[in-house]
Amino acid sequence: MDGTNGTEEQRPRLSRRGFIGVSAVGLGLGMTGTGWGPWPGAAVGAARAADEQGGLRFVVLTDTHGNDEETARLANLALVFAAVEAENPEFVLHCGDITDYGDDSGFAAYRSCISDGLWDRIRHVPGNHEIRWDVTARERFEQWFGPTSYSFDAGGVHFVALDPTQALQEPGLFGDDLDAIRRDLDAAGETPSVMFLHFPLAGRNHYVNDADELLRTIEPFPVRGIFAGHIHRNEIDRFNGLTQVAAVATRSGPFYLRCTERNDEAGRVLVVEQVTLGATLADAPVVDLLTEIPLDAGPGELAGPVHAGGRATGPRIDLSATAGPAAVGLEAQVYPQELFGTAVDRAWRPLERAGGSWHGALDASALATGVHRVRLRATDESGAFWHETVTVERHGSARTKLRWDDPIGGQIQGALAASGNTVVAASTSGRVVALRVSGAARHERMWVTDLGAVHRGAAFASDGSTVFVPSADHTITALEAETGRSRWTADLGRPVMSTPAVFNVGGVDRIVVTAGDRLFCLTTSGTTVWEAEVPRLSAGRAASDGERVYVGAGDGHGYAYDLATGNRLWSILTNTRTDSYRQLIYGPWDDWIEILPTGAVLFSTVANAIAVDPVTGSELWRRDGSYLYAPSLILEDGSVLLTTEWGVVDLVDPTTGVAHWSTQAVPRAVNAGPVRDERTGTVWLVSVGGLVVAIDPASGAVTVDRQLFTSNTFSTPVIVDRQLVVAAQDGVVRGVAI
């Protein structure tokens, strides 16, 4: 079909996040069979009369943050969508953060601001606010909006919706979707493409850890534009043959972007303007030109590609590179691996041109032994860039030595589980692998099996004979630890996005696990002993003292339940926030609850660690710090190691909450907590950016050991024999001799 009149061609495709190519007809009919109803976006092109010709005309907006408790914000959204409908665009692109925290009431409030005539012309992608607290593993989003990754053609342009968001996490990762994106662009051929997603890429933006891999993936194809949100402001970047527009948040006021096509002697161009509405639709809007996106050629295209190599020698990294014919300058910097989900400008080091190549050096004196990334950017006369990233190994002394790595695929996002010499890792691809680890260097695969996507860690039975694996496909599966054979599978009716906890009471194991807003107690044969409500969600891990079960919830409370019956005994509100969204994000929703040596129960949030009486729930002490994400560690003398998400480790008295010492151990620590080597007493910690450090628990002295990898890790490692076993989001398990 001819795409110049706003209709679409069908390109069926599928990836792990549901990446598909769709047509207007296919969406309107095909999705109905799923029970979802007409999928928003089904009427792309409907705003233009069948015989009307001319350029594209569409609207982009982002970060609406719909919330049924914020009436002023909803009034603003209603005003914006009424104005957008009056524009009569062919379609609307929404770049995510549709709501504050992705619940049905927020989606319903957002939907109430949009007329039926506009609703089915809006194309959505999720933001971190939809997915981070979405323990339904995207199911709720798909029920409201359809797939999270897809593509369509309109007006002779190929549009691609990207979804690098990660369940339960703040930053983004494309991961396995890169292959699907490559296939999609290859099928589009020479048609210019425009992508839209939540996180802006490249430059000063460090929101997606493998953004450099995306740029390599799209390099052979005519991708000309990217629309994004997240940063709540307008920001224009021109790099690698495309123009990226990060848009102002509609949450902040009556703003949206108007995009119209101009076709003249300069070729096809998308003109992007910001529209700022008045107090009412009767007031004249203010329209400001933001940028223009060329569709026939791209900025910075001839400054690349950049090909480079680096060698770390002593305190420096020597670089040699070539760039494209239009490059007038080439700069480099060490990739700031310690950054995590943020935007930061760092100084660039210019390289010197010598004939057809560029040369220079970077200071490496502050870098740990191990693997690092170096970023390069070639600049043309217009100021546009070509970005490239290379990997460099810095050699040096380290206490540890990498002995092996075992790629299992997908992203390993949950803690590793260990019993004896058996280590179990599971990934978002559904792959579950058991490894036998021994000595300082040996490992072998015991078995491999495939289940549904796993986002949290597995857990062993108290005797080590069985391993329990939670899955986003609504199940928890018991596998024989020695062979991997399935013993049973329990369907809990919703995605199981928490780490199971196993408690042995009177010689009998009980498995306690949360699934969405429900708390389950199971026998080792998979029978449900009891089921209870956990308001909103719980994504961490429960704890028990043999009489009660304790869990953190998404309504800001910590709860106690009777272990025998599941009856709720008491609750404590961990923060004084007055609205549901802030009670969630400032609450213990992702906490691994700890029973302290004193018998007190420790709940942690992004603001405090709070010790409470196990019988009454009354507060005993409170310590300021963002201790929510990294599990705590109880040492032999009963003191407790608490780790903040900012990498500060505190040795705390469990009776008073007073710190014996406090130290900055790593730049960031998220979900991966410290582990102790029983042979030496040394505590090991892996940062979210892959930096491994050793901590002396007596003094708090920190020794930086090595930069083990450049992917993010959210997995608490394990120590088996003389090895620290570590996993990361590149899907690789590594054995490090310690």
UniProtKB/TrEMBL annotation:
It holds the Pfam family PQQ_2. Residues 56-233 form the Calcineurin-like phosphoesterase domain. Residues 444-663 form the Pyrrolo-quinoline quinone repeat domain. It comes from the Bacteria. SUPFAM superfamilies: Metallo-dependent phosphatases, Quinoprotein alcohol dehydrogenase-like. This is Outer membrane protein assembly factor BamB/3',5'-cyclic AMP phosphodiesterase CpdA. It comes from Agromyces ramosus. The lineage of its organism: Bacteria, Bacillati, Actinomycetota, Actinomycetes, Micrococcales.
